[in-house]
Each structure stands twice: as structure tokens, then as C-alpha cells.
Specification:
The protein is an alpha+beta fold. It folds into 2 domains: about 5-115, D-amino Acid Aminotransferase, Chain A, domain 1 (2-Layer Sandwich), CATH 3.30.470.10; about 125-285, D-amino Acid Aminotransferase, subunit A, domain 2 (D-amino Acid Aminotransferase, Chain A, domain 2). Helices cover about 30% and strands about 25% of the residues. It has 8 helices and 15 strands. Strands 7, 8, 9, 10, 11, 12, 13, 14 and 15 form a 9-stranded mixed sheet that branches. The chain has a 6-stranded antiparallel sheet with strand order 2-1-6-5-3-4. Strand 8 (about 170-175) and strand 9 (about 180-185) form a beta hairpin. The protein starts with a strand and ends with a helix. The structure holds 4'-deoxy-4'-aminopyridoxal-5'-phosphate. The site of 4'-deoxy-4'-aminopyridoxal-5'-phosphate (PMP) has 14 residues, from helix 6 and strand 13.
């Protein structure tokens, strides 16, 4: 039996799960999504993800066809149907079928899709050796154009940056905002450690307010470390003692080189490794 995908209340075999080519999610990237993980059968930070999905939907004036509780139950139902306890969950809400024109008000039926799959873990060497990053020229979306706080189906801004970093032979890129301050990576938030303090760009820098970012700030507090939201330039990255990325799939990944400069001593740093250990003990204890 293959994987089952939830579409509007029904489960379909993966190869039979479909939406219309007239769906504005496809025609215009008009919709919102979440990437969530389940550890040991528990949906990690479920409430935060559902709240962010509903906030994204509200921001694009998309009326959710289900309540928060119904969405949560639907995720649970899909996980159970697939017998998955450690999983990556992709929750997608499209604007629905409309005309070939832009008008979202002609789309009457938003589609709720839940894909649960086994998690494609990043290679262990990313964690052991750390990543190399490059700053790319694609500027992060201006918050007054498409606010990066909206986790929308239109990820072209990030994809353009991803193309640049792949061309440079790397897997993740640093995106700056229009003022030249560090925003985030294509699919992860960024932190530095400097003189025993954590620093990460503030929401106004034009970032997705990452849920892993929030967890890391909480963990820093528990470890008695200050975690500051600060406008940062590339200088702050280059002179950092440590640097790491956070994201649902990545968890916490050390960064050891940025724009061909070594970060710290060029090895994953002690604070990064401590936070990763704390993060992993939280997910294995299912405390999330
Ligand atoms: N920034 C962007 C652009 C993202 O797409 C993501 C999610 N992959 C993140 C940051 C990290 O957010 P979270 O910790 O909620 O997964």
C-alpha cells in the first residue's frame, strides 16, 4: 500500500491525489503552506504551525474552510492512515479553482492538502562539518510587496536565490533585504554567536518568523544565554564566533564558511552543538 494524501477530507493514493489546473495555487502561486514534523508520533509545535498557517491565510484574505482544530485532526488522521510516527508534514491550502483572471474572489473552494512522508534527513556531514554559505544578489522580498512572514505558495524569491547558490556550488544562500541587512536563507533562519550571545535578524528585516528560530531562542534562555534580535550586516556574520541555521527540516545546522571566509575556527562551535543537543532532547522527549 502506497502513501495516502489528504485532499479536502478524503484520502487518495499518492498517484491519484489531484487538484485542478485551474486552481489559483498553480496558476498564480495563490495559497499558503506549512512544513511540520512529527517526532515519535507527536506533531512538533503543532499549535504554532497551525497559528502561522491561519495568519498567512488571513494576510492573503483567504478564508480557511476548516477550523484550527479540524486542521489539526486532519493532520493526525493522515499520519495515522499512513502509519507514520516520524514524518515530514506538508500542509497546503490553495485558493481553489477560479477563472484564468487574477480575481481570487471568483475562487469559491480552497483546497486543503496534507502530504505526510518519511523525512528526508540532511546528510550527517552537514552537522559534523558544517555548511558553507554564500551571499546572493537576489534581494529578499520587500515586506510591503510580499511580506516574508506570509508562508505563501509563491517561493520564487527563494528559488531565485537557491539557483544562485547552486551555481556557486553550495546548498544554502544568505539573502539580504533591500537595505542591505541580513534577512535569512532560502529555507532557514540564521543566527550568529558573538561573545556568548545569540543574535538573529528581527522580523522587520523581512523574514519568515521561523518556529525553530523561536524554539532556539527559548532554549538559549533556558541555557542562561541572551538571544537578541538585531539588524545585522555581513560584517556581523564574518566576525561571528559561530553561525548556524534553523528550520523544521534542518533543525540546527552549523555554518563554518561564509563568502569564502572561515567562521570562528572553521568547525561547528560549542554553543551551536549545545543548542542542537538541547533541541534533539526536546524532540525525543516529545516535549514539543
Ligand atoms: N525561512 C524560510 C524562508 C523558510 O521557508 C523556513 C521554513 N523552511 C524557515 C525560515 C524556517 O522556519 P521553520 O523553523 O518554521 O521551519
Amino acid at each position: 500500500m502506497g502513501l495516502k494524501v489528504y485532499v479536502n477530507g478524503e484520502l487518495h493514493e499518492k498517484q491519484d491525489a489531484r487538484i485542478s489546473v485551474y486552481d489559483h495555487g498553480l496558476l498564480y502561486g495563490d495559497g499558503v503552506f506549512e512544513g511540520i514534523r512529527a517526532y515519535n508520533g507527536r506533531i512538533f509545535r503543532c499549535k504554532e504551525h497551525i497559528d502561522r498557517l491561519f495568519a498567512s491565510a488571513r494576510a492573503i484574505a483567504l478564508t480557511m474552510p476548516m477550523s484550527k482544530q479540524e486542521v489539526t485532526e486532519a493532520i493526525r488522521y493522515t499520519l495515522d492512515a499512513n502509519g507514520l510516527s516520524d514524518a515530514y508534514i506538508r500542509l497546503v491550502v490553495t485558493r481553489g479553482v477560479g477563472t484564468l483572471g487574477l480575481d481570487p474572489y471568483k475562487c469559491r473552494d480552497p483546497q486543503v492538502i496534507i502530504i505526510t512522508d518519511s523525512i528526508a534527513l540532511y546528510p550527517p556531514q552537514y552537522y559534523e562539518n558544517g555548511l558553507e554559505l554564500v551571499t546572493v544578489s537576489t534581494v529578499r522580498n520587500h515586506p510591503n510587496a510580499i511580506n516574508p512572514r506570509i508562508k505563501s505558495l509563491n517561493y520564487l524569491n527563494n528559488i531565485l536565490a537557491k539557483i544562485e547558490c547552486i551555481q556557486a556550488g553550495l546548498t544554502e544562500a544568505i539573502m539580504l533585504n533591500k537595505e542591505g541587512y541580513v534577512a535569512e536563507c532560502t529555507g532557514d533562519n540564521i543566527f550568529v554567536v558573538k561573545d556568548g550571545r545569540l543574535m538573529t535578524p528581527p522580523v522587520h528585516a523581512g523574514i519568515l518568523e521561523g518556529i525553530t528560530r523561536q524554539v532556539v531562542m527559548e532554549l538559549a534562555g533556558q541555557a542562561g544565554m541572551e538571544a537578541l534580535e538585531r539588524d545585522m550586516t555581513r560584517f556581523d556574520l564574518y566576525v561571528a564566533d559561530e553561525c548556524f541555521l534553523t528550520g523544521t527540516a534542518a533543525e540546527i545546522i552549523p555554518v563554518v564558511r561564509i563568502d569564502s571566509r572561515q567562521v570562528g575556527d572553521g568547525r561547528p562551535g560549542p554553543v551551536t552543538l549545545k543548542l542542537l543537543e538541547m533541541f534533539r532532547s526536546q524532540t525525543t522527549n516529545s516535549a514539543g
